[in-house]
Amino acid sequence: MIYLTNILSIIIVMIFLLTATDKIIHWNTHIDTIKNYRIVKDSLIKPLTVLMIVAEYFICISLLLMRANYYNLLVFLLLIIVYTVAIVINLFRGNVNISCGCGSILESSNLNFWLVIRNAFLILVYLLVFINSEYTITQLTFYEASFTVFVSICLIMIWAIIKEFIAGKKVLDKILRVFHLGVSK
Amino acid sequence: MWNDFVLVIVLLLLTAELGILYFFLKYNSNFLKQIQSIKGIQLDSLDIGEKAPSFRTFSETGEKVISKEMFSKKRTLILFINTNCPTCKSLLADINSISSDYDINFLLINSDNVSNDDHITKQLDDSIIYIRSNQITSLYFIRNVPHGVLIDESSTIILSNYIKNINVLNNMLLNEKNVRSSMPV
Questions:
Q1: Do the interacting molecules here have an ipTM over 0.85?
Q2: Residues B93 and B174 placed together within one structural domain of the fold
Q3: Distance, in angstroms, between B51 CA and closest chain A CA?
Q4: Is A171 within 8 Å of B7 when comparing Cβ atoms?
Q5: Which residues form the Methylamine utilisation protein MauE domain (chain A) (predicted)?
Q6: pLDDT digits (tens, 9 = 90+) for B152-161
Q7: Is some CB atom of chain B closer than 8 A to the CB atom of A181?
């Protein structure tokens, strides 16, 4: 259990680190995406985005340095619930052809129900880490800690590779259709 | 000790390998996107047989337009125009007859949100739903106007054409009507 808890905990840290950094790097694109949700007033978008990025970094740092506690659990739940409610509102409005603005490996070019399921799954993972928060990475030897870190990175890389592969396949299929080419099976 | 060291090295190599694979896929996907800039190839387009993107908006008369509901009731013709397009102006005089001759929903979408459109509104009868939206025009990847898109009751695009004159629009609807009537019940 100690390995699983630490692997899941590092995965959450890495996901939030990547998404928060991606939002800073692509700041203007992210602001436009939030505008497309048509939920928040234009004047509030920038302060809210800053708040969300700070919250994401807070989760990363506190989870890495302190372990899962009530504070970071509360911030995590608030953040995920806000994101999910925004997605659900736009799903009901039919405004689905917008980027989800999740950032980095969580990014999706349109809104769909799977994003809600994915967020629910993320909450379950975090709760699992929280329940087993007595297991910390400091209890592991150097080699065991390295093992958990590399396994977490590998799992995230596999996720990113699968996403990239599916996206590339879609574009390739479209090109084949444009040129009226078929793929022999 | 030795086994742990080997395991960490193996995981390090696996991470590096996955990293290379990810960046290769990313490079490949960027290359495929670049193909879109080659003249004559439009990958960002909606093909016949694809699902029509859904939207929610208000018409110029203040009526709420929910595309999903509208599409499901009967076939829908969306005609994309622009206030300043001369061909669109020539079409306007005859589109009222189209809307009365065929049992379809008729949506007229103007990609221009700014210019004075009095000459358009004056010519339209009540059966035509007139919307000014650049966003919907982009959503349907329309680059040249006037452009007609015919959508069936299952929200599938069945025809999509550049409308050179009113005859093209008439023939487009007539051919589809003939195909439909010849289909076995």
A1: no
A2: yes
A3: 12
A4: no
A5: 3-130
A6: 888 888 888 8
A7: no
